[in-house]
Specification:
By secondary structure, the protein is α/β, with parallel strands linked by helices. The protein has helices at residues 14-25, 47-56, 71-76, 78-99, 131-143, 164-173, 191-203, 220-231, 258-264, 271-280; strands at 2-9, 30-34, 40-41, 57-64, 102-106, 149-154, 156-157, 177-181, 185-186, 189-190, 208-212, 218-219, 236-240, 252-253.
């Protein structure tokens, strides 16, 4: 039987890969799970393989970064999305009880119903506005039965193919006309800061639900304009409402981060600081 501080599931995704990079830098012993190029190359739908892993290794903290986040995919293939977004979480919660590790589930700001221009607290009303949000809310219910868990509701982006910031920067540089929502507000933060804070929080005696994002909220439109200014490029866009989307999504997703700031003892970055960090990756 081998003992490790962390297990990172979904270690090749945007967030998981950053968490692993920081764990390596801090020389914290850990293992990783992904489909390929990890310590354990597994199909996460195969729970028997996961069970064998937990029988042979002990972990202090398990961070689940694996998720299907494509809203269109969740709508059209809901049963498939349920396997990774819900059934996997249920299985891991059972393993947490059995093997007594802290289970950290990466959730989303998309669960909040939201009130216009008001930051959401952890106790704010949640609402399954679409099937993606439904899968994340269902997943959270499994963790709430545990004694040692963290649910982190967050919104992050970073330099990786098909992310929001990557699409945005490429569109700006290629001078494409893009659609920007003037009425969708988020507390999006850069993935590097997000990963650092998750490790800090998981390492503390912490449990329950925490919002993790920038200290303020900003519209998607203004976020994009700020990125273009820092790139010193002109942006071409159409000003549209998120109500025009075929699939409904939350509009007021800003996060109140007072709870996490109090717990870890330092301030979250502002939207502007997060944008500066993101743009640095493209310069």
């Amino acid at each position: 039987m081998k003992n490790f501080d962390f297990l990172v599931i979904g270690s090749k995704g945007l967030l998981g890969s950053k968490i692993v990079k920081i764990l390596k830098k801090k020389k914290i012993n850990h293992l990783t799970i992904a489909r390929k190029n990890s310590n354990f190359n597994l199909n996460l739908k195969n729970f028997k393989s996961l069970n064998k892993l937990f029988l042979k290794n002990r972990f202090r903290v398990v961070i689940n970064c694996a998720a299907i986040i494509d809203i269109n995919y969740c709508e059209s293939k809901f049963n498939e999305a349920l396997i990774i977004n819900c059934k996997l979480v249920k299985f891991l919660s059972e393993m947490s009880k059995k093997f007594e590790f802290k289970f950290v589930q990466i959730s989303t700001d998309h669960v909040y119903k939201g009130k216009k221009l008001k930051l959401n607290h952890e106790q704010s009303e949640i609402f399954a506005i679409n099937k993606y949000a439904k899968t994340k809310i269902l997943a959270e219910k499994y963790l709430k039965r545990l004694n040692n868990f963290l649910i982190i509701r967050t919104n992050f982006t970073g330099k990786k193919k098909n992310t929001f910031i990557d699409w945005l920067v490429k569109s700006i540089k290629s001078k494409k006309i893009i659609n920007l929502f003037h009425d969708m507000y988020t507390s999006t933060m850069d993935v590097n800061s997000c990963a650092e804070i998750i490790i800090d929080l998981a390492s503390l005696k912490s449990k329950g639900i925490y919002n993790l994002g920038s200290r303020n909220m900003i519209s998607k439109k203004n976020f994009a304009i700020s990125v273009s200014k820092k790139l010193k490029k002109k942006i071409k866009y159409r000003n549209i409402s998120c109500d025009m989307q075929q699939i409904s999504s939350g509009k007021n997703l800003g996060l109140n981060v007072n709870k996490i700031e109090k717990k870890i003892g330092y301030k979250m970055p502002t939207s502007n600081q997060s944008i500066v960090n993101l743009v640095k990756e493209y310069q």
